[in-house]
Amino acid sequence: MALNDTILKVTERIESRSETLRADYMARCERAVSAGVRRAHLTCGNQAHAFAAAGEDQGALVEGQGGNLGIITAYNDMLSAHQPFEHYPEQIRAAARAVGGTAQVAGGVPAMCDGVTQGQSGMELSLFSRDLIAMSAGVALSHNVFDSSVYLGVCDKIVPGLVIAAATFGHLPAVFLPAGPMTSGLPNDEKARVRQEFAEGKVGRKELMAAEIASYHGPGTCTFYGTANSNQMLMEFMGLHLPGASFVNPDTPLREALTILGAKRALAISALGNEYTPVSEILDAKAFVNGIVGLNATGGSTNLLIHLLAMGRAAGIVLDWEDISDISDVVPLIARVYPNGLADVNHFHAAGGLGYTISELLGAGLLHPDTKTVAGQGLAAYTREPKLRDGEVVYEGGARVSGNAKILRPFIDPFQKTGGIKRLKGNLGSAVMKTSAVEPLLHITEAPARVFHDQEAVKMAFKAGELEGDAVIVVRFQGPKANGMPELHSLSPLLGILQGRGHKIALVTDGRMSGASGKVPSAIHVSPEAVDGGVIAKLRDGDVVRVDAVNGTLEVLDSAVLAREAEVADLSANTHGTGREMFDIFRRFVGSAETGASVI
């Protein structure tokens, strides 16, 4: 089928906007390619330091005949999503040796969990950790002894940070190797119910802890469709995973076989192999458009509305929220995974998963089929399903019919006709809203504002019984310059309670909401942020605010508000404790949310 007109026009618009930046980026990558094998430029002393601890691989490294694979790992054993990476380096080294190459752990990057820091001061480092991860990976690769790279990362800021690093070293091939989701535990909707009952005082902490442990119970990614699993989707749609790799559970034979195949593939596409495919050639405008299509079709995380912009810039691609919103208008929502439905990612995978999703979207002309990928066969290869035969991965035709119409539907019979990501613009600035989990009757909320400077103040007002009636809850001074733009997901239970009492409730904030957030209409990432004097800093209790995801507007109805002086908050408490002292330079130099909230 011919490519959809809107997809084509948005792609061309991105390419035109990016022309100069992309040309400069590709020229830098081409100069690096023309320099040849990097370690050939090192002195004997340089190389001796790099190979001193290589053991049985030292001879091969000195001779320099086979490719050397750099491993960037986000392994730690505190976080379930990253614990499975512990033994990946051993598997990758063995796989490299099997094809005449070598592999070394180039370096580790930090990996923090927004689930652990949710509602805590550590969350103020979360978004900044993305750029720190990119920088850490850059330090690791700066040794210039690698011919290709593999990236071990899963969660919220880790994958975007690693993509920024991979793009920066765009002359090197890059294969992303996921760990997969944990097996299904307590259903996500049941966990949410217990959280809300705890917020209402109907159950105690013992019952809450039991529900949380039953939900987050083993190695692997959390099973809801939040930012971590949206990242995995993105890597597959953009061609940086092997086909079908995203949602295979950890510690299974197929998971290990895909890791081994990924390592071999990374060497095969190096400049020393027969199919040289630098990541700069994969990360073009078409690949990013495909990723945006996938985000909309599956109801993915709003955090990627920031990360996509930052990743694109690293590859010379200039994206904006209008691109994402325009694509959303023509891409149907064909998957319902919690918080957009009751299913988790394991159920989604069993129903046909990303292979079925990509097949449907290709058939509808909503994806660029001709993008370069690490599989080397265009996006059609990602409609196939990996199977294990005699210990080796083989690919078979993927599902052509959904295994569960409550989870996955064909594009001609979607859950909704649009992807559910809407850009909002008006006299309050620019924001975004995810509507795929919000009831259509709630897509427009007009109500008096209740204004707070932090989420703790909202919780205190709720406990004091001060939040009654329809309201637009405004939580400001939560932007990247103010305090690192924390997620405000811990407000979801109490906002849900207010909804349940029959009140029309919306959230407006210059902060973020979790990828797991759903039923409360939320205008987030408001720019300009309050600390920059944005109109959100001029609001007072009682000002009537209209949040309209139908017409794409965000407005305070009394224009006299615009002439007010902006409030100035005391943010000194955000500058110290939990390591925040070390991130002052990030807060001072970070860009706005609508440009990716980056310091790079």
Short synopsis of the structure:
The protein has 600 residues and is an alpha/beta fold. The chain has three domains: 5-43 and 67-183 and 218-397, no CATH class; 187-217, no CATH class; 421-595, Glucose Oxidase, domain 1 (3-Layer(bba) Sandwich), CATH 3.50.30. The chain has helices spanning 5-17, 19-34, 44-51, 58-63, 88-98, 114-117, 126-141, 158-168, 188-199, 205-215, 227-237, 253-268, 279-282, 285-298, 304-314, 321-330, 345-350, 353-363, 455-463, 480-483, 492-500, 584-589; strands at 68-73, 102-108, 148-152, 174-176, 384-389, 392-397, 421-426, 429-434, 444-452, 471-475, 505-509, 522-527, 544-548, 553-556.
What would the keywords be for this entry?
600 residues; alpha/beta; Glucose Oxidase, domain 1; 3 domains; eight-stranded mixed sheet; 22 helices
> What low-confidence regions span 5 or more consecutive residues with pLDDT below 50?
none
Q: What is the strand arrangement across the widest sheet?
A: 7-8-12-11-10-9-13-14
Shape: globular
Helix-residue proportion: 25-40%
* Ends distance: 39 Å
Q: Your description of this structure?
A:
- This protein has helices at 5-17, 19-34, 44-51, 58-63, 88-98, 114-117, 126-141, 158-168, 188-199, 205-215, 227-237, 253-268, 279-282, 285-298, 304-314, 321-330, 345-350, 353-363, 455-463, 480-483, 492-500, 584-589, and strands at 68-73, 102-108, 148-152, 174-176, 384-389, 392-397, 421-426, 429-434, 444-452, 471-475, 505-509, 522-527, 544-548, 553-556.
- The protein is built from 22 helices and 14 strands.
- It has 3 domains: 5-43 and 67-183 and 218-397, no CATH class; 187-217, no CATH class; 421-595, 3-Layer(bba) Sandwich (Glucose Oxidase, domain 1), CATH 3.50.30.
- By secondary structure, the chain is α/β, with parallel strands linked by helices.
- The two termini are 39 Å apart.
- β7 (421-426) and β8 (429-434) form a beta hairpin.
- The strands form 3 sheets. It has an 8-stranded mixed sheet. A 4-stranded parallel sheet has the order 2-1-3-4, sandwiched between helices.
- The radius of gyration is 24 Å and the shape is globular.
- α8 (158-168) packs parallel to α15.
- The model has no long low-confidence stretch (mean pLDDT 93).
- Helix content is 36%, strand content 13%.
